[in-house]
Amino acid sequence: MPQIARSIAQAYSNLPRPHRVLLGSLSVITLAVSVWRPFIYQPESFDNDADNYIAPGIIAKAIQLESSQLRALTPEASEPLDQPLPDDKIPQDELDDDDKTGADVGVREYVVSTGDTLSSILTQYGIDMSDVSLLANKNRDLRNLKVGQTLSWELNEEGELQSLSWEVSRRETRTYKLVNGNFKESVEIQQGVWHNKLLAGKMNGTFVNSAMAAGLSRSEVNAVIKSMQWQMDFRKLKKGDQFAVLMSRETLAGKREQSQLIGVRVRSSGKDYYAIRADDGKYYDRQGSGLEKGFMRFPTLKQFRISSNFNPRRLNPVTGRIAPHRGVDFSMPVGTPVLSVGDGEVVISKRSGAAGNYVVIRHGRQYTTHYMHLKKLLVTPGQKVKRGDRIALSGNTGRSTGPHLHYELWVNNQAVNPLTAKLPRSGGLAGQDRTEYLAQVKQVVPQLQFN
Ligand SMILES: [Zn+2]
């Protein structure tokens, strides 16, 4: 080997100088090209319907390549690392549960739906792939999650996974706690008794107060609001409107442990609205049609190059501190129309320091989308928008290193990766799932009686 190297070196030094220069620069260019692989979004790998994106592995790999060494090579349209974007509070309304202090902080919950895998669920929240592998090796069953099961997990302040709970069934919960760099499994079997309870009442004041007066707990009220979020706005209910809620509650030694919403019926202005739970943990109307409204994957008509990716654990190389990038940056010319990705209500539309002109839209009760560095705002707070509506023109305002759109998607008060997150989809149950659901509806609907 040293001999070969020596002869190559000799041949090289024997070349005339212009040749040496040419050969040298060629090698550098070849090396640069082989290292430089910009992440360009490929439209065919996604479908607008969130369930159908292909090959998440490829995307995850590309995201890793789009990191600091690339940023050194190409000037990217993004935000300076030392300047976090504002963490502006979304205006709360009467339906929001402001009692989120204490045990709930840092705990995330997710109901498994069709096509989900442990890695697709956790990585969209920015959890490290190495943690996912550790978990999957701990219990191989975690590679076979079932639709409707619930996962909840806890992160520390650095965004690192501390524990994961897996509700295998109503009776069995497995917990994986991080101990000395590995996850320790424990199994808990619930001993309680489940029974159904009908709670009915009339609107008198806010829905939250009326429902609690009818005997629902605050978390049960939240479940009702969530189940109906795409078909009705509980703030619009009038005095005297009626509701009936069927809960399944677990009691252990006389104490209520947990509960699950089975079905809800609301009568407003003489019209009845229903949401009934299917085995997938989602709520549908009496025909099994989806109540959720679909989202677009991208907030623009055309797809633009990604100049910086979602990375909640991004490190500032200078300070060594975490400088999360809670959204995706799309490099685009100033003045590109920015579209709302789903039906919703504008909650913020204003100029702020680092974010420049920006818009926040609330979709249902669980989703918000954020659009920053805009040139021109086209909507005002309180305005209702439809999916695909123009809300602004893109720009380069605030702390921005080039014309781009910074786009964030939040689910249950947490930023997720907008490129891989499971999006709300329209559409209902089909085939065997629908048949089973309709049989369930036949059982539940007659029970939803008003007082
Ligand atoms: Zn950004």
TrEMBL record:
It comes from the Bacteria. It holds the Pfam family Csd3_N2. It is a single-pass membrane protein. Keywords: Hydrolase, Membrane, Metal-binding, Metalloprotease, Protease, Transmembrane, Transmembrane helix, Zinc. Coiled coil: none annotated. It is found in: Cell membrane. The chain crosses the membrane at residues 21-39. GO terms for biological process: proteolysis. Residues 108-153 form the LysM domain. One of its GO terms (cellular component) is plasma membrane. One of its GO terms (molecular function) is metalloendopeptidase activity. Residues 76-102 are annotated as: Disordered. Signal peptide: none annotated. Its cofactor is Zn(2+). Belongs to the peptidase M23B family. PANTHER family: MUREIN DD-ENDOPEPTIDASE MEPM, PEPTIDASE-RELATED. NCBIfam families: PRK11649.1. This is Murein DD-endopeptidase. It comes from Enterobacillus tribolii.
